[in-house]
């Protein structure tokens, strides 16, 4: 994911350089990725509508060839081919979103590399110097965030120009986007609450407007809602708030 995240890190860096605000950069990055992926979303949505349209014919096939699994499968495939329906297309947005989320995690956890454009050798030397001096874990996933926080708290590693690190403002509307909400507490707990609330609102909207979800039974919808809200609460609470901000928007 470190290498897959490189082009997305470049986009995030452009957003930050344009706006000089970390939170606004994350929001702009989110909208850019949504615009780029809109054609894929539209295609999968239209594909879902096809399934709703051919559902009566699928039910007729199951009734006509009841007990003949191979025949039912053949007839379904023929119907899918005729209507140009792709049964696995619905998984594509989820897969893209998962990859994109993992890239955002990489970007937020590694601001020295992705926002400030430090090369690998400089990052490694800076991390080792700060971690050795302050007794930090150099192997932790959040080590770059710890280094940034240490420098902004006043630590000055000898032999490094850290003016860019000192000026990197990771606060947004009173939230420290480098902090983990459940560890930080206080106002930061609004991040998982907002993430869960936005997920619930989106699910309720999709249950009405999305053709496939509108066709689901009540228990299926409740299960989907619970999973989505649960994932959002975890993303909002157990990772840096910058990732929660991305997920909310």
Offer a quick outline of the entry.
The chain is an all-alpha fold and 249 residues long. Helix content is 73%, strand content 2%.
Walk me through the structure:
- The chain has 249 residues and is an all-alpha fold.
- The chain is built from 13 helices and 2 strands; from the N terminus they run ααααααααββααααα.
- Strands 1-2 form a two-stranded antiparallel sheet.
- Helix 1 (5-19) crosses helix 2 (22-64).
What is the total tally of β strands?
2
H/E series, N to C?
HHHHHHHHEEHHHHH
Give the fraction of residues assigned to helices.
over 70%
Could you tell me the radius of gyration in angstroms?
Answer: 23 Å
Largest sheet: 2 strands, antiparallel
- Strands side by side in the biggest sheet: 1-2
Secondary-structure content class:
mainly alpha
- β content, as a range? under 5%
**Poorly predicted runs of 5 or more residues:** none
The helix tally amounts to: 13
- Give the CA-CA distance, first to last residue: 22 Å
The overall pLDDT, averaged over residues, is 87
Cα shape:
elongated
Quaternary status of these chains? single chain
Topology summary:
Layout: H1 5-19, H2 22-64, H3 69-83, H4 91-109, H5 111-114, H6 120-134, H7 143-152, H8 163-166, E1 171-172, E2 175-176, H9 181-184, H10 190-209, H11 211-215, H12 218-237, H13 241-248
Antiparallel strand pairs: 1-2
Keywords:
249 residues; single chain; mainly alpha; two-stranded antiparallel ribbon; 13 helices; 2% strand
